[in-house]
Write a structure and sequence with these properties.
By secondary structure, the chain is of the alpha+beta class. The protein is built from eight helices and four strands, in the order E-H-E-H-E-E-H-H-H-H-H-H. Residues 1-82 form the GST N-terminal domain.
Amino acid sequence: MVLKLYSLADGPPSLSCRQTLAALDIPFELVDVNFYSGEHMTEEYAKLNPQKEIPVLVDDEFCLSESVAIMQYVCDRYKPDSQLYPKEPKARALINHRLMFNLTTYYDSIVAYAIAPIFFDYERTPGGLKRVYMAMEIFETYLNRLGTTYAAADHLTIADFPLINSTMILEAIDVDFSKYPKITKWYNEFKKIHPSLWKISSDGMKKIQYFEANRPDLSHLNHPIHPARKAKT
């Protein structure tokens, strides 16, 4: 049975899973979940993921959510000797650290500042941008200290994908991060060295740019957490 990935076309976690599968040359069926019509909020989708979040991987009878877990699983299950997620404990620990840093700090601050105001009733604030730059400063420090070409090694790993897609969001909304030379070089080199993987990111970025310019009305979702944008009068 071919793997199925339930994915959001402009969702960085989904993009990272797609890049992992592509980099490992693992065949899979891509199933687009329509976030904007609320497909992920249905009871049918909740059977796949009670959290009603995207992405979800289905491998025969095995169903897995959470993008980091998905990336780790497909590496271990299908290409256990790949350098994308090496087994050596210290190498793997660094990759796991960068994955967690992205989730808890880097992506978290970027989504709150850049993405939430596109789709829900949130405002971009100087404080929000400060949090983004604080996270970038930390990432810059990690790149300086490690001194490697990529985020966690001198070769591409699954740690790079979510960090690339988080940074891509900033490019999508024209946030200048050129004052972070290590991040800028790493980001631009990824584009040049891995054009097919970058295309997955850039296609997502185009959608984010579209919605940045054309803020959608998602009030019909009746989201349990995020407030709907107030109607214009």
